[in-house]
Amino acid sequence: MSDSGNGKGKGSSDLSRRRFLSGVLKTACGVGLMGVGIGLYSEKATSLPALAIRPPGAIPEDEFLNACIRCGLCVQDCPFDMLKLGQIGDEVAAGTPYFTAREAPCEMCEDIPCVVACPTNALDHSLTNIEDARMGLAVLVDQKTCIAFLGLRCEVCFNVCPVQGKALTLNYEHNVRSGKHARFLPVVHEEYCTGCGLCEKVCILEEAAIRVLPNRLAKGKLGEHYRKGWEEKDRAGGSLVTPDIKHQYNLPEGVQYDLQGKGLIIESEGIGVDKPKRSIRAFGTGPEKK
Amino acid sequence: MATSKYETVGAEAIEAKGWLKAHKWLILRRVSQLAILGLFVISPYLVEVLDELWIAKGTLSSSVILGVIPLTDPYVLLQGLVSGDVVPEVAGLVGALIVLVFYLLVGGRVYCSWVCPVNIITDAAAWLRRKLGLKDKSHLARSTRYWMLGLTLILPLAVGGIVWELINPVSLVYRGVLFGIGMAWIVLVGIFLFDLLISNDGWCGRICPVGAFYSLLTVKSPLRVVASKREDCDDCMDCYLVCPEVQVIKPALKGAERGLGPVIMSSECTNCGRCIDVCARDVFKFGSRFTNNQVEATGASSQHHNGAKA
Fold first, then answer.
1. Is B55 within a domain?
2. Is residue B309, in this structure, part of any structural domain at all?
3. What are the chain B neighbours of A31 within 8 Å (beta carbons)?
4. CA A152, CA A159: separation in Å to the nearest integer?
5. Which of A37, A118, A208, B199 is exposed most, by the fewest CB atoms within 10 A?
6. Does residue B181 fall inside a structural domain?
7. Which chain A positions have a beta carbon within 8 Å of B80's beta carbon?
8. Range from A9-13, A199-203, B80-84 carrying the lowest mean pLDDT
9. 10 Å Cβ neighbour count for B292?
10. Contact (CB<8Å) A30/B160
11. In Å, how far is A133's CA from the nearest CA of chain B?
12. Could you report the per-residue pLDDT of B275-289, keeping only the tens digit for each?
């Protein structure tokens, strides 16, 4: 199979065996070097940039790079032509599909043709309702420039959101600066946002103040060991460690502290002698007692 | 002497059979390679005319023909499968099976010579190399490609991702033509220069793991080139000079005394038919592997021409 394939197995002298072995070794080393090169290049070439969002249904990135066979069928089946394929020289792995929300967001087709087209489940076919897609997460990255925070009426992102009223809502807040207006502040709700990027696309600023980021960048992650005490308590029906203790302040005799607003109460000064007792009772007795 | 031989390769055949017949299989291969690529290119533009029908959608990695027939490159799929992260759709599996069966019948390396667009680049380099009379000093083993094949199947496990497809020039050409070339042309120019200046038949004949994979599919395939009139051979050497896998010819053409041939049995033969073209004495023809050592008895040649698609 090689050029030197006339080394003839029978009656091979030491010399020809040595030549054969050194040939194999050379080839193996060369190919090994090539492997290192390709491996290093792939490290660089597969560091997905922050603004590249995978199509709906994309499985986690490291699995996606194994499963996507770079055929481009999803790109061709996208009726809005918003998907692109990574090219050599891009930071997106060559041949893998992505979109840039600011240029062209996902239009959230109900039949999700890109997912249907995928032959390898790199875009997971179990995704049948586009509202279950989690391509990324919209994040209001800059409150300084979002004009809603400046007290102006905008709400463009709120109005275009395809999961309107759920993924993006408006919080009304007093405008302290003017003293007489309300601010209509956009708030993203992670449990509904599909990451389609329409909000980023329509943001009226020169640079969008709301951006869709890949989930890995948009979300924090609690430590695996982390338990929320109140949830564990609810689940167990009571404290798991030590019984709840009554909260109290270690204050000198005749001194009370009212959490509800009165603050420090010194009985000797004769202020509301009755009231402190009431307040003590009020916060000393937890829901467990009485 | 040798140099002039390089320059005049095929001249005898042109004189004997005429230019067209001396380039018959070459022309058919170019038509096949370009037609397949062309179908993928024009399909998006014909969708509206053809009432939403895509003639060929996707790329060689995976495609859908006429909206129903799935085709998937089994080699690309295999790279994903070794990682364990691929759960192929039925269409993906059926597609790979269709491609697999097709190449098992016609010979895996028909992919290389009749479908792969890189073949046009490396053939051009080989042609220019012959014209310039350049000699190969690299001594790159032809077995390198099988090491490469192994490498591409290990890399997904070692570094994650179908790494080979980042630089696979076959995919780069298709994606480049269909979705934009980017910097991929550098790789293609690199391959041309490598084949021209460094290694004779270097890319396709020594390095490309795609060809290595498809060689493995060729081992038992029935469609073969046969040196059916090898006793007419006048040792002009033209077939040796144009053959991209020159090691496959000798056993079939010159193996009579050793009881070998006349069928080219090597799995590395690409069934390109160039040896048939350049032979002024029509020593070679397409036939089947079953005619080995019984060429006088049958001489059954079925002039297979395949519009291979993948």
1. no
2. no
3. 144, 147-148, 150-151
4. 15
5. A37
6. yes
7. 66-69, 120
8. A9-13
9. 17
10. no
11. 19
12. 999 999 889 999 988
